[in-house]
């Protein structure tokens, strides 16, 4: 499977949807925000993943010495979806 296919994007989305709730705690209370007029809280994060150096031409990393080939994953998540 090529990394550039839609299947990879779908896989990452499903993995993220399953992982995020397991890494959060259930005491997150969005009523704290809504009582103060805040109706949407977004969480953002990112990570870089090193790939085999032979993929550098297609997936150039920004740290050429340590990781000439890499991909970056940037995620935006709504905090309201974390509350059960």
Portion of residues in beta strands equals 25-35%
Low-pLDDT regions: none
Report the count of strand segments.
3
H-E string: HHEEE
Strand count, sense and barrel status of the largest sheet are: 3 strands, antiparallel
Helix percent reads 25-40%
Overall spatial form: elongated
- On the 0 to 100 scale, the average pLDDT is 78
Oligomer: single chain
Strand order of the largest sheet: 1-3-2
Distance between the termini: 35 Å
What would you say this structure looks like, in words?
- The protein is α+β, with helices and mostly antiparallel strands and 84 residues long.
- It has a domain at 32-84.
- It has helices spanning 6-22, 31-34, and strands spanning 42-50, 60-63, 67-78.
- It has a three-stranded antiparallel β-sheet with strand order 1-3-2, with no helix packed on it.
- A hairpin with a 3-residue loop joins strand 2 (60-63) and strand 3 (67-78).
- It starts with 5 loop residues before the first helix and ends in a 6-residue tail after the last strand.
- The mean pLDDT is 78.
Short overview:
With 84 residues, the chain is α+β, with helices and mostly antiparallel strands.
Which key terms come to mind for this protein?
single chain, about 80 residues, alpha+beta, 3-stranded antiparallel beta sheet, 2 helices, 3 strands
């Amino acid at each position: 499977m090529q990394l550039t296919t839609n299947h990879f994007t779908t896989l990452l989305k499903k993995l993220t949807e399953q992982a995020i709730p397991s890494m959060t705690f259930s005491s997150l209370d969005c009523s704290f925000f809504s009582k103060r007029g805040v109706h949407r809280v977004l969480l953002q994060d990112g990570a870089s993943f090193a790939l085999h150096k032979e993929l550098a031409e297609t997936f150039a990393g920004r740290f050429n010495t340590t990781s000439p080939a890499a991909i970056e994953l940037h995620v935006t998540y709504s905090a309201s979806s974390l509350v059960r």
